[in-house]
Amino acid sequence: MGCREDCSGLWPGAGTIRLEQDVFSALAGQGQIYVHLTDGIWSQIKSAGSALYASRLYLSQYQITHPERLAKHTPGGPRIRGNVYIHPTAKVAPSAVLGPNVSIGEGVTVGEGVRLRESIVLHGATLQEHTCVLHSIVGWGSTVGRWARVEGTPNDPNPNDPRAHMDSESLFKDGKLLPAITILGCRVRIPAEVLILNSIVLPHKELSRSFTNQIIL
């Protein structure tokens, strides 16, 4: 929805619809909004950083409801720190260090010496030897080369805290990409020995150098 005429004087978010302010408030004023009570977990997903928070929440819940689903540190296996989920089909080298708050999907390959923390690795991805992935989401079928570093900035607070400030309407401020978690789309290829920091890489991209605070189209 947009403005055909001059939009000056309208609220700063003119042209967008905000769920809480524009939809819920109107429904509440008409007595048409209802509440569903649940004893399960629930989390808002307003940004990619919120997705990592939600993953952390689910992993914490597993400690209570399904502790058998969480990885345990065993002799000859990878070093586990905190809550970590590893899909049964994933292949993880014994010298890898995982956690806290890591989720590894179906068919993922994690090489020797890899360090993973506060990240989600989706199915079919490959992390080659000695890569470091922090505060990031690695897309389906993506490959991160040897000794590469993929890192984001954990700038999103708890999205369920009513006092939290989440500026999710724009990715930019003063013409610059705001620091946030790094996201690799599906089938992205990251070469060896580069740094991808606070960046978003769209699907099917093959990079050849380092990037910082950029969206790679």
TrEMBL record:
Coiled-coil stretches: none
Superkingdom per UniProt: Eukaryota
Residue stretches making up the Mannose-1-phosphate guanyltransferase C-terminal domain: 80-216
Keywords of the record: Transferase
Stored Pfam families: GMPPB_C
InterPro entries: GMPPB_C (IPR056729), Hexapep_transf_CS (IPR018357), Mannose-1P_guanyltransferase (IPR050486), Trimer_LpxA-like_sf (IPR011004)
TM helices/strands, residue ranges: none
PANTHER family found in the cross-reference section: SUGAR-1-PHOSPHATE GUANYL TRANSFERASE (PTHR22572)
Name of this chain's protein: Mannose-1-phosphate guanyltransferase alpha
Taxonomy of the source species: Eukaryota, Metazoa, Chordata, Craniata, Vertebrata
